[in-house]
């Protein structure tokens, strides 16, 4: 099984696909959003105004498919699955975006909660969605808009045994570039989520007796904003199918 | 003596001026940079790429002189002293910028080390520049550029008794929106600073036997970038003469 970020990316480049949760433990994972340069200021201001769902790790120079987060990577081929959007509508879900890449592209890479999953499991939190994608939900909370770019907050959810709630708070609070502390615990209704068994993205998790649902701001918020804001052209990763960087997440005892 | 941020701002609005270090303890202070909207993307990307000197607290909508950081404030009148720049040259230093304000202005408010001064003094650190402005120096380190916006890193310096160095690290590490941990301790030559008694901005501090100079990234980095990058028009605060927000800095025991 591939272990390092570079090995996992090489697999994706050669056509392997699938969700990245649990892959290359200890390496920081990232959401991807590509927009035309004309939209880059609105998106960048949106990420500033909504740092919980959109902690920026890197913004490329216009047209560049490279990032200092992984020097040998090509952002057009090294993710397992992409989504191509036109006027806010999903038009394709390819494993390679070389043929739709534009020279006026600006790429945003933002932090992902998958980065803290290995810290949570090493602290004893049970894995409630083995072999599946994390559950994600569109909430009733609107993000602070920026120019033309706006949309609802999206969250990911992990069931946490009540005895481990403090541990999960402590670990994730110290990882602000991976969304940081949970934004909600308990009643999904307060976020406008009606049925935990029907996530808007990803797969439902197993909720065991004694578990409480814990919600973190989610990078898919940027995709929801693409749908709401309808830029003429955008590319994102497919939910749960992240860019794995070469940045090692520091491990600290908490 | 005025105590709250609003009281101090009201004084500035009526013509009072002077450095803000030590004023309105516990309220977050901010650097100000106003640029034409055409330059806003480059500046915003520069702040993202240089988060230590430029931790963004707010970016206004184009033309707005208001910020959620202080609802009743007017950014054109409520700072003690401004600087007006044309093509990177300082052309005026007024206490009010109403008459030079442009409708295409975008204002950046970024964190300031003055915010942690009250935490440092309450932890027992001596105040080495009573009644004066903090010492600031242009370094030999270049910031990561963004489009047309580039320039050197500027630092502030505080002399710290060696027994209190750990305390100063602990306190400021936990305040990333006020520049966070020191970026250098000791030999000024490593930053290209030749003479601590001749700061580039502000006033020299008293260095006592047993003190070590401790350096933090400084918001004046944005002014140095204005000088280096020469936007056609810019307004900043005068060094040490900050915008005092209504945001209370949480106090924690460390």
From TrEMBL, chains A, B:
It comes from the Bacteria. It is an enzyme of class 4 (lyase). The keyword Transcription regulation does not apply. InterPro entries: D-Glu_cyclase, Putative_hydro-lyase, UPF0317. SUPFAM superfamilies: PSTPO5379-like (SSF160920). Keywords: Lyase. Pfam families: D-Glu_cyclase. Belongs to the D-glutamate cyclase family. HAMAP family: Hydro_lyase (MF_01830). This is Putative hydro-lyase Caci_4424.
